[in-house]
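Dissemination and training. As part of the outreach component of the grant, students in the summer workshop were shown how a complex can be specified as a set of sequence lines and then modelled as a single object. The example used during the hands-on session is reproduced here so that future cohorts can follow it. Participants entered these lines:
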Amino acid sequence: MTVDFVLRDWNAWAPGMSCHEDWQKWRDHQTFAQEEKAAIPAAVPKILQRRLSPLARAVFNAADGCIDSDKSLPIVFSSAHGEVNKSLEMLKSMQKGEEVSPTAFSLSVHNAIAGLFSIAYDCHQEITVIAPGQDGIAPAFIEALGLLQEHHSEVLIVLYDEPLSDFYPSLPFALNAPAICALALKVSLTGNGLPLQFNNSSAHRDDGEQALQILSFIKFLVADDNTLVLGNHRHSWEWHKK
Amino acid sequence: MENELKQLIIDTLDLEDISVADIDSQAPLFNDGLGLDSIDALELGLAIRKKYNVKIDAEKEDVVKIFASVSTLADYIQAARD
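and obtained this result:
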């Protein structure tokens, strides 16, 4: 399978990083700021702002830099673990005999951030939320490229994850990046931007799950490298700058 | 009672930028007024049960009337406790 597409625009947020120049500098030191929360975009209605978790703020911040307010796009969200840390907090409060907050429950489901986003941005286009498990960022590309083949002119991909609570044993798996990170990519089949080719690969790779692969992809975007290969013991995929 | 209830609404629903004085006792709580939604209604119902030991049963009560405004909610809680 080989598909050509164009990366029209991208934007990523992590603590201390909110523009392309920040990520250029990050390429050399690869460290993050401590405990910073993403700014909430001005487009988000006040009454919804209180519902945004730190992870949702990162997603909104990254996506907002990639979209035009007057044109809503189909969106493919992808997160390995979503807001599972919220579910853990609820389970802990149930263990203490407390009642579960309906708000916390509604915001803990895997598509909660996508739901909030569609309300805040009045998006009536097709929205998909993928839990890619072991396979990292590639399933989101496959889904988005499929939507482009179905004659959508542009699709927004939003990849996001936050470190899992220490409660969950992660070894021997490579699940966690050092910080929250969200990456938004606007893709199309034609037009201006960075032309890319996407294909599967027979390489055996050990690049970790999505949280780590997001950072590898950002590094690929800001570096001079022409090829990125990512995989996590199962399928492997390649991205080439053309 | 009404002011106490307003503070409970602000604290429970994370309405950081709103003060007790900003909430009109007669104004609608949902949609047009404060702009609260159905999740807020559930959250508020839970907070009222915890604080006043008053359970609002959606099966038996006219929830729309009870939650119409701070004033109607205060009347309902008052009556249920007496």
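DSSP finds four helices and no strands in chain B. Students were then asked to discuss how this feature might be tested experimentally.
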